[in-house]
Amino acid sequence: CANILFLCRLRRLSKEKLRKWMFFYIFAQKITQNMEQKLVGRDTELKMLNEYINSDKSEFIAVYGRRRVGKTFLIRKAVKDEFAFFMTGMNGVAKSEQLVNFSIALQKYTHSATLQAFKSWILAFHALSQYIETLPKGKKVIFIDELPWMDTAKSGFIPALENFWNSWAVLRSDIKLIVCGSATSWMINNLIRNRGGLHNRLTHHLIVKPFSLHECEEYFKTYHFGYSRKQIAECYMVMGGIPYYLSMMDKSKSLAQNIDQLFFADNAELKDEFSDLYRALFKKSADHIAVVTTLATKGVGMTRQELVKASGCTDNGAFSTVLEELEQCGFIRLYEPFSTSYKIASDARQKRNTLYQLVDFYTLFYFRFIKYNKYQDTSFWTSSQNSQMHHIWAGLSFEMLCLNHIDKIKHALGISGVQTLVCSWRSNSTEKGVQIDLLIDRKDETINICEMKFYNSPFEISKEYEKKLQEKLHIFAEETKTSKSLLLTLITSFGLKQNKHSNIIQKQITMDDLFY
Q1: Higher-pLDDT residue of 514, 341
Q2: Pairing outcome for strands 59-64 and 204-207
Q3: What pTM does this model have?
Q4: Are the C-beta atoms of residues 424 and 439 closer than 8 Å to each other?
């Protein structure tokens, strides 16, 4: 901290830049404090990292995933904080500040009395290699966090990183270079798909995804929350299994109270999360925000042509990049509406009727509630628990929850080994207005037509609803001309209440199945 203040005075930095440096210092302190927390889940990722770190050759490992998903925490737990060198890039600062940041980090490990001043990244990485060469035998883990932030315009950062790896690190057998970043599209395009000096040089890449329902339940049990599975599912439908959001919850409060505290209170810590999230991930986020804003208005998704028209974006290569980046970061998905002929996904994406759908839980929650909380009600979520608005949101979000855990649904159906396409279907007739939000089109000549219901008790099929389901099956079979067997599948919170109308359901899955 003293170094930062000294440098700011020496370089006569503005109050804004001073604020950024101090924020960086406080952020580093918070990371250190968080290391006292336990690592929940991540068994597969931890095993893979340990294998890479303990190998008998130098490794170049890229770890990526959306912001707040726990990448840094996972790496620090895997290495037990025993780094030969560790630094974090800074967001929104110029090359000169990034180099000063690098110098401060290097000084921490070299224990030098003076701070080195680097004019280029080549010199900075050269100094790092010189320091590493002074260390005793054994593996040396170099961890550079938020790497995309360091690649500022015309900085020469990537060529310097290429030179550091190709001309020095790869020639040794003890270097474990781990780089990490939230800007998933940057990590993929500049490292994993690099066609320059780093082409095929990356030895491993590891994506860290949001928690599953099972991992969320494990987290809540570890930290002694008394939430039921229904409450955990609803929490997931708001926050999407992002560990950082979960870490901010208070076990002494109800789920509704926690959501109010995080998103709707006067001092809510996540009130501005939406803008922070997209600006941190994408250097030019305006079009990305325009796309998700547009998709939020239509749950089933839009074609590219519909999306261009509604968003006001220009249909060109840059727009294709925006869509690809949103997909890579897990905010949207591409899928093909049901077709009577079975096609693999790579071919389907070439079709004009491919749909783009917003699938990020937090973003959906933001547009439905946070952005339009016009009354500025600090207890908004608690007071809306039994409202129609809440019931509608819960029904739609539960459908997304099911889609997000389709592997669990397939397991419960006993078809994990069957090749499938997950899609939706809309009737060609606007008068009939029939829509099926989830179809599992199977290679074994069978289609699971899924109905999803989020209720507080076992779901009861009425005479009217049975008639509606029969009509839906009839219209689907008639319009698609499919010869496949149709299995009406019900996915509910607490199962199906048996009555004289319940026999229409051929397969049923409960919320419990999504937790395994």
Answers
A1: 514
A2: parallel
A3: 0.85
A4: yes
